[in-house]
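WARN retry 2 of 3 for item q-0093 after timeout on previous attempt; input resubmitted unchanged.
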Amino acid sequence: MTIKRPTLSQLSDVASDLGMHLSDAQLRDFDAVMQASYDAYDLVDALPDFVPRVTYPRTPGYRPGAEENPYGAWYVKSEVRGAPEGKLTGKTVALKDNVCLAGVPMMNGASTLEGYVPDIDATIVTRLLDAGATITGKATCEYLCFSGGSHTSSPAPVHNPRRHGYSAGGSSSGSAALVAAGEVDMAIGGDQGGSIRMPASYCGIYGMKPTHGLVPYTGIMPIELTLDHTGPMTASVTDNALMLEVLAGPDGLDPRQYAERPSQPYRELMKRGVEGLRIGVVREGFGWPHSQEASDAKVSEAARHFAELGAQVCEVSVPMHRVGPAIWLPVACEGATQQMMKDNGMGFNWKGLYMTGLLDFHANWRQRADELSDTLKITMLLGEYFIKHYRGHYYAKAQNLSRQLRLAYDAALANCDVLLMPTLPLTATPLPKPGAPLDEVISRGTELTTNTCPFDVTGHPAMSIPCGTVDGLPVGLMLIGKHWDEAAIYRAAYAFEQSVDWTAL
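OK item q-0093 returned
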């Protein structure tokens, strides 16, 4: 017998939590009937878990000191060599530290998760290794991935390689910094509100959030099933397209892959040029109250350059874009509070690969909740208030409205191949100093998402490309495509990259 049988006191507490009022006699009767069910749990406990095999040898690696880690971008340095031949032979890759790499520590930027070591490889890890890549370690990310800035990771912030002391963006902060610094060729990022595209914009690299479900999320710590995306972060468009070719396609284990679209030859499709490509410049993506005028101007200038290259560029209006962040908020706050925190990351009611070891280890956050980052605390306070007092009503309504928001973008895309707007309303900001006021800590983590988060809730593919600088800091331009049409985005991105030196703009 391995499963602890409940005491009558424990059963009474459970009944009370469920609003039941049972006498001791009733509890004993129920307990007697439930004995066969306890036996079934014993049987499940005794069976070995059914998870994918780990095939490539590796060592646990080590946490590098400051001399090896000037930007704070590495969590663990390790080396896992992939197949001797493949599309990614010779390429080095850093994994965002929410991606499971068996035998190598995973912290997800959180002190409460320190000490966890996965026993499986994420699907994308296996695909990278099968394609010949060498994984060189785990990149620092923000505290359980809840910050658009790079100041919340435990134990220290990530610095922007373009300017020390400035934010690298979040939550894939280390991934962007390592690519921008030239320490790796490629990195994996994750995106629930813009966490691939925001750091890509701040650091001046290429970051693609693919269509929701194109790349399997299996083996990556979930935040919210309907928002979870993972994708490539690279120093060139060609490497980005190459990496997506390797990552994309169904794995049979991820419920997010409801459409099961296969990978495409993105590197070939992107070389068609932009002659005649229809690009819609979204009016509502510019001029937010916190927008930096010079940054917006760089994006507008880049749009004119697309016209010079032969694209058909026109202004379009998507009024609902301005309420996109409000629609995203209940999904992100309530959904993450319920799935990632209260349900220990895994949640219920979906088929696929559950990471039971991660579930068990992450559950310890309840005894250490005071350690959570302020950005996560405020998310949970908001989410739990609305779950408790409004029964999930606004989560449900926001999910309904997300379909209307998708239709609004689809209507604009009916007459355009891609949409264009600033990735972020501003360039990189200074990292908050230790002891900074709460409003500064929170605003540095949330002010970036206005243009990025709507496309997490609608699932459209979106990519940040660097298009110039303001005072020496990169400016990102975002291209948005139809569902499953990453190829059109790559066409535009490649043509722009090949025609200009963005660092001189």
